[in-house]
Amino acid sequence: MAELTSMPSIPKLYAQAAAKGASHQLKSALTGTPLGGLLKKVPLGGSSKAHGNAVLPTERVSVSGHSIERQKLVSYQRLMKDTVRDELPSVFLHAAAFPVALAAMSTADFPLPLMGMVHLKNVVEHRRVVAPEEVLNISAWTENLQAHYAGTQFDAVAEISVGDEVVWRGVSTYLSKGTFLAGKPERPEREARDTDTPQSIATWKLSGDTGRDYAEVSGDFNPIHLGTIPAKIAGMKGAIVHGMYSAGRALAATAPHGQPYEWSIEFEAPVFLPAIVAFEAHASGEAGKTEFSGWNAKNQRRHFVGWVARR
C-alpha cells in the first residue's frame, strides 16, 4: 500500500493529467499517428482471467488521520438543501475520499487517460453514522476493467475507516471513451421506458455558478464544472454540474438520518449549466427502499436514476 503523507491536491492531479494529454496530442500531431492508436499501445489492465496477463495497478493508495473541516460540512449541507446536523452525509464522505481515489487513477502505471473520463454510476455502503469529529483513514484502488461499446470502463473503489472499522465504502464506475480492449461488445438495445413523465416533487434551479459552488465545498475542481471557458478548453460544449452534486441533492431529500443505508445512482445525460432539473422520489416495492430520478424540465430527457435503502 502506498501511504501518502498528506491529502492529494485535486487541481494538481488534474493539471498533471491535462499536461499528459497535451503531450499525447502533440506526439500524435508530430508523428501522424492517430491518438487512439497511441492509446492502444498502452497495456490495458483488468483481471488476469478476463484479459490475459494484463492487469490494472494492484497497489492501494491511502491517507491516514484525515479530519473534517466543520465549516466545509455546514457549507455542503446548506448547498445541498440538507439539514445542518452533526452527521456526515454520504456524498460528503465521497468527497473526502475522492482525492485519494483520483491519486489511484493518476499513478504512472495506470493505463487510461484521466482527462475525459465519463462518470457512469456509484454504488455506496454507508455502514454507520459517522460523526464530524471522527478521524478518517482513507484507501482507494482500481479494479474490474471491462470492455464497453464506447471504450473501456473500470471501477474506482474507496473505503473510509475509523480505526480498523470500515464505515463507508463506495464504488465509482468510469468510462474511458475511445480506448478499447479486445472483444469490443455491441451496443445494447436501449431499455424501453415508460413514456409518461413522472410527477416531480421538486424543481432544482441551477445557476451557472453551481459547479464552482460545489467545487468549493467538495474540493473537486475539475475544469469541466467550473465555467463555460474552462469546460470548452477541456473539450466540453459547456460547463456541466458534478454528478455528485446531483447525488447529494437526491440523498438530501431521500436518505435516512441517524442510521446506516445503501444507495446507488446511474448517470444518463449531463446537466449543462444553467439548468432546471425536475426531481421525483417514491417508495419502491421493497421495504425501506426509495427510488428517485431527475430529468430536464424542458425537454424531459432523464439525467439520472437511483435508489436509497436502509441497511
From TrEMBL:
Transmembrane segment boundaries: none
Basic and acidic residues bias (residue ranges): 185-196
Domain of life: Bacteria
Region named Disordered: 185-205
MaoC-like domain segment(s): 202-288
Record InterPro entries: HotDog_dom_sf, MaoC-like_dom
Family designation: Belongs to the enoyl-CoA hydratase/isomerase family.
Protein name: Acyl dehydratase
Species: Neomicrococcus lactis
